[in-house]
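Continuing from the previous page...

OK, I double-checked the sequence for histidine kinase against my notes and this is the correct one:
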Amino acid sequence: MSSSTSSTTWREALVRSLRRPPWSREAWRDTRLIAAGIPLALPVWLGVVAPSLLMPVLAIVLTCTRWITRAQRGRLHALLGVEVPPAGPGPVLSVGRLRIGVSWRQLAYHLLVGPSLALGALGVVYLWGAGLVLSTLYAWVWLLPMEAGLRTELAGLDVLFTVVGVVLLVVTPWLATLTAWLEVRSARALLGPNRAEALERRVEEITESRAGLVDAVDAERRRIERDLHDGAQQRLTSLAMNLGLARRTLKDCPPDAMQVIVAAHEEAQAAIDELRDLVRGLHPAVLEDRGLDAALSGVAARAPLPVRLDVDLSERIAPTVEAVAYFTVSEALTNVAKHARASAVDVSARTSGGKLRLVVTDDGVGGADATRGTGLTGLRQRAASVDGTLSVLSPLGGPTTITVELPCVL
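Thanks. Re-ran it with the corrected sequence; updated structure tokens here:
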């Protein structure tokens, strides 16, 4: 039995137990698991046996539900390696002056299912003991001193009892396995989260994982940008300076050699420009040094068409969100220049209510469609990477308005 036990049926658990020896290590492990649950159910059985103690027992179970649940989950983890995730607190109940958040499923386990399983566990433990005693009865009859007449009277019964004891020792491990399977199934169903809670927790985990991945990608882009800026770009700049110096000073150089120097100098300059554009595309230094306002100003200044920029940032924006906003505006302006046939673009960036709102409006021909490869799909995916949204309004004849909303803090 393992953490996958909860996904198996009782028939599969029984077949698995039948395929292994009755006195295997797994049988003893299952027995220890179910036996360890007996003490946790004793208070409830005490209330059943002594009705006068029923109300105090119920009060104790209610007030200690959280700790009893933790003990049951710890028992399954320590003895079987099964993880039962904690469930939500459930509705708030008042017990005396205490207000306790409990789940009805937890109460059902501790008041009904747990004691019933403990009773079954007690029966399994009893069968183990009876099997051990009865299977050795034949040996005790002949080893212990007794009168000959009494030994003759027990001559038939001792063999029968011994056979019964052996049968019990063979059957009891299977009963222990089935009881342990019921323990795991009921604990996961009643002590763990329900389907809605499990889905909500999974969504939270995926959201946190995605946010961590986005941050990691942004940090890696920053590192690559720094390495290129401080390494390859500096070396190319030094090479271009040396070639330019040679171009100006070596006047008596043969024409063929000078032509090679001039070509190398121009290639170095072109490589620097391309590398500068690449570095800016990875992560512009101005975004980290001076913030989103200055970075958007640089994008607007480099755009191939007039851009009217309106920026009002009253709240601090997370660095990852700043990068997404910068590249979103940059790609939107590139799309406008390629497809919109516009003469001017308005870009607005404002913060309000914990959100950054970007609006890019052009006076082009309109008709933008994300399904026709205009780049809007990439913009929407970029915004969604930080739980942002993107909407497009682009009637035929224009204008086209792209609205992006991003959270200021991840």
